[in-house]
Amino acid sequence: MTKKRIAVIGGGVSGLVSIKCCLEEGLEPVCFERTDDIGGLWRFQENREEGRASIYKSVIVTTSKEIMCFSDYPIPAHFPNFMHNSQVLEYFRMYAKEFDLGKYIRFKTTVCSVKKQPDFPTSGQWEVVTESEGKKEVTVFDGVMVCTGHHTNAHLPLESFPGIEKFKGQYFHSRDYKNPESFSGKRVIVIGIGNSGGDLAVEISHTAKQVFLSIRRGSWIMNRVGDHGYPFDVLLFSRFKHFLRKIVSQSLLNTYLERQMNQRFNHEMYGLKPKHRAEDITLTK
Known about the structure:
- It is found in: Endoplasmic reticulum membrane; Microsome membrane.
- This protein has 285 residues and is α/β, with parallel strands linked by helices.
- The protein folds into 2 domains: 5-146, FAD/NAD(P)-binding domain (3-Layer(bba) Sandwich), CATH 3.50.50.60; 158-264, 3-Layer(bba) Sandwich (FAD/NAD(P)-binding domain).
- It has helices spanning 13-24, 65-68, 85-98, 120-123, 195-204, 232-236, 239-247, 250-262, 279-282, and strands spanning 5-9, 28-32, 105-106, 110-116, 126-132, 135-141, 143-146, 187-191, 210-214.
- A 4-stranded parallel β-sheet has the order 3-2-1-7, covered by helices on one side. The protein has a 3-stranded antiparallel β-sheet with strand order 4-5-6, with no helix packed on it.
């Protein structure tokens, strides 16, 4: 019986896992990667590349290696609990080499279009048009896996900032940020207290004259390191804590989590205490 061919679009972490899963299911994957290397989001470059997700040089993952590793390929013991982006990429390279995934990837190949075959209701097949070195190729696949991520296009709602067109300073999305040197001696406002907002506010503060952090509402700040030096997520998502969630009221869980986070600093004293309870965010992670 002929193996079904699957097109995998993107050679980042999701693309690599998809290739491996296809092989385990007896399928024939063909991965199309528009650049010349794997890694996707986690491959740092000094200059932003159009059409590809971008990170800043200092990015360190907020998820511990125990939680983020592949179940069939643990992260090496000598790697830190929270890895720098270069170590994340190194891990993905090790993963691809271990399972010989590279031979299924076509680099410098852009997917131009994906559409259903005329007989799709009976065949379930797709027509995929790709382009490499100026030449286009049409291939029929039995399935398509889109692994392009969701961090490629920046969300910059300028309509929410009346008068921005008259602003004489510089403004841009965190996607375009690379390092803090260009902010030396300047007054900077960082809008948003997500992972990127928190990172950039701290990093830029070392070189800028003054940094403001603007947020719409309060936020619970979770430290990466928990009790006794263990990663916070390892402590939070253990089997024991999962069991407790089933037998303890949500109100009590909220009180416990908020007390843990307030041990580092009092959120109310710093004007950061939000209206929502702590468990409202941890359950959606």
